[in-house]
Specification:
There is one protein chain. The protein is of the alpha+beta class and 161 residues long. Helices cover 29% and strands 21% of the residues. The chain is built from 5 helices and 6 strands. The chain has a 6-stranded antiparallel beta sheet.
């Protein structure tokens, strides 16, 4: 459930992105301090929470039009921060049937996958599994340095590594 500093740096290197504000200048590289932390701690709007709640479609395939809507909603939700270098994905409890426990949307907002009980998650996402299952959150945003549990009403809890 722990992602080492080396693994985090490798994940950042693989993503090929760095944190930038709308102005385009590089800024802080973490999500736990400074302006980025403040922005990511803000309550999520109901449309964003509702849209991410619709990921549990049952067939494990994400319609490209729906994926585009999700990506646009995320851009609207976080207009002043881009943190794809630190964002690993979204986890939520899966309700398809009793053999699945969570589903994920990856950091590129492209892959929706449903995972069976105990099935290994992609590297870095495993730290959010128990939060998604038992934390009472609508979904969990997983970053390289923390998880952010989003309640159904949009409030955000920050859970550092």
């Amino acid at each position: 459930m722990f992602m080492s500093r080396q693994k985090r740096q490798e994940a950042l290197a693989r993503s090929g992105t760095e944190l930038r504000t709308q102005g385009g200048a590089p800024t802080e590289t973490g999500t736990l301090t400074g302006e980025n932390a403040r922005l990511l701690r803000e309550t999520r709007n109901p449309a964003y929470v509702d849209l991410l709640g619709k990921l549990d479609t049952g067939d494990g395939k994400l319609d490209p039009r729906f994926a585009a809507r999700v990506a646009e909603e995320i851009r609207k939700e976080f207009p002043a921060v881009r943190c794809l270098g630190q964002f690993l994905g979204v986890l939520a409890k899966c309700y398809i049937d009793d053999t699945y426990d969570v589903h994920t949307l990856d950091y590129r907002l492209e892959i929706l996958r449903h995972y069976h009980l105990g099935e290994a998650l992609p590297e870095g996402l495993d730290k959010g599994r128990s939060l998604a299952l038992y934390g009472g959150y609508a979904f969990v945003e997983v970053y390289t340095d923390c998880c952010r549990g989003v309640f159904p009403d949009g409030r955000v809890a920050v859970i550092p590594d």
